[in-house]
Amino acid sequence: MSLRDKIENREARIGVLGLGYVGLPLAAEFAGAGFTVLGFDISEHKVAQVNEGASYIGDVPTAELAEQVRSGRLSATTKFDRLAEMDAVSICVPTPLSKTKDPDMTYVEAATNEIARHMHKDLLVILESTTYPGTTEELILPLLSRSGLKVGEDFFLAFSPERVDPGNPVYHTKNTPKVVGGTTPQCTELASLLLSSAIEHIHPVTSTGAAEMVKLLENTFRSVNIGLVNEIAIMAEKLHLDVWEVIEAAATKPFGFMPFYPGPGLGGHCIPIDPLYLSWKLRTLNYKARFIELAAEVNTAMPDFVVDRVAYALNDVERSVKGSRVLVIGMAYKRDIDDVRESPALDVMRLLQARGADVHYHDPYVPELRPQGDAPGASSVELTDEELRAADCVVIATDHSCIDFERVIRESKLVFDTRNATKALGRHDHVVKL
Ligand code: SAJ
Q: Which tens digit of pLDDT belongs to each residue from 97-129?
């Protein structure tokens, strides 16, 4: 039976490498579409949780996962030799930056080498991990071609960028349009056929490079616009203007404008990182991607800007940062999630500590901070009235919906609001906004 037939009658066995915030939802969608899915991960813990039907990803409800595991549609393993049983494999492993801010392709290479070890005729491989244009053709294809099998005839290779917005209440894997580009038209067609069985709208492009570039355009668009609005916030402060009022008014323009909002910096494992994959690739071609590098410069300077503003606000009440007790509300990189990766709130806390402040934090989604480098661990404090009153300054770094900011204002001596979390609560002399 051909791969096409196996996909059409849902008999194709699907492997998903990497069971994180991209892989687990994708595996669940393929299982929901009627395929038998085997998740692969190096983490025994993740594999055990999946096989117990216990979801560790907010976007995958445990009830749904448990049902798929019970029915045998979905299971997980750390035994990569079972890749030999797969008809199609999606690679959903991390693509972080190295210490020198260059692409770290070790996870993608390791996953691809595992697949290469178990290559067989008619295998479809789809890379989902965000990466620089050229990765699929220059890194993946040669590793898989060592088998002697010919791409587009004996095996099929495509790139299809993940578009997961963690915590988004409306858009999930199934209803978010998916771009896909294959090494050959046949690769594009087969990858599109498989993906369209689990995802409502597929948008094919003519090459893997185009698909890789689409994702980087999406995330560079965000990084550059956030960098712009952060610089507007810095300008507004020098002009003694309320940047939030200005953005709210600009957003009344019904065409040609899209609001972005300033903040304490740029967090997450995508937006601060993915654009640097593009600028790195262009540097190898002797081109300087100026917008990407400038946006990164502005965004990474925001924690310092915030701490300077906190220092000025304390100074206005005749307090120095040194010796002051500061409570930072919110450690997650954005509201209503528990992820602290690249979170600017961590930088704000550490910069305040470096200036001698006694810093505590409260985040209902982040009960503990593990020690990182020379930074000690910490635990989230209860947001009691006493805790608020004891602080010389409360810094709102993440505007979680569950936090009662009215009480924060009422019980605090001084509030520095980096997220306009207090906008609906009127003006207060002791509340300073970014
Ligand atoms: N941020 C601002 N101002 C804004 C928007 C965001 O300061 O106007 C900050 C956030 O607080 C956060 C960071 O930027 O720290 C990233 O925010 P994000 O909303 O882009 O969140 P991510 O990184 O979790 O998800 C993004 C996706 N988000 C949206 O499209 C809304 C999307 O770009 C990608 O699908 C995803 O990264 C990814 O995996 O690439």
A: 998 889 999 999 999 999 999 999 999 999 999
CATH number, domain of 199, equals 3.40.50.720
Q: Does ligand 1 lie within 6 Å of residue 330's CB atom? A: no
Q: Please tell me which residue in 92, 187, 270, 393 is annotated as part of the active site.
A: 270
Look up the pTM and report it.
0.94
CA of 348 to the centre of ligand 1 (A): 19
Tell me if 213 sits within 8 A of 159, measured CB to CB.
Answer: no
Which ligand 1 atom sits closest to the C-alpha of 274?
40
270 is catalytic: yes
Mutate to test the pocket of ligand 1, among 160, 215, 270 (most ligand atoms within 8 A of CB): 270
Indicate the residue among 206, 232, 257 that finishes a domain: 206
How many CA atoms lie less than 13 Å away from 399 in the CB half-sphere?
Answer: 16
Whether 416 is in the pocket of ligand 1, judged by its Cβ within 6 Å, is: no
CA-nearest residue for atom 33, ligand 1, is 219
- Axis crossing angle, helix 62-70 with helix 23-32, rounded to the nearest 10: 60
Q: How confident is the model at residue 31 (pLDDT cuts 50, 70, 90)?
A: very high
Distance CA 154, CA 224 (A): 41
Range of the domain at 134: 3-206
Distance, CA of 19 to CA of 56 (rounded, Å): 10
Count how many domains the chain has: 2
Closest CA to 10 of 226, 220, 196, 209: 196
Atom 40 (ligand 1) nearest CA: 270
Please identify, among 206, 234, 256, the residue that sits at the C-terminal boundary of a domain: 206
Backbone angles phi, psi at 100, to 5 degrees: -95, 20
The CB of 27 under 6 Å from ligand 1? The reply is no
Asked if 168 and 313 sit in the same domain, the reply is no
Tens-place pLDDT, residues 264-286: 999 998 899 999 999 999 999 99
- Is residue 8 domain-shared with residue 142, that is, in the same domain? yes
Contact in structure between 297 and 313 (CB atoms under 8 Å): no
Q: Is 20 in the pocket of ligand 1 (CB under 6 A)?
A: no
pLDDT in tens, 56-70: 998 899 999 999 999
Q: How far is the CA of 249 from the centre of ligand 1 (A)?
A: 22
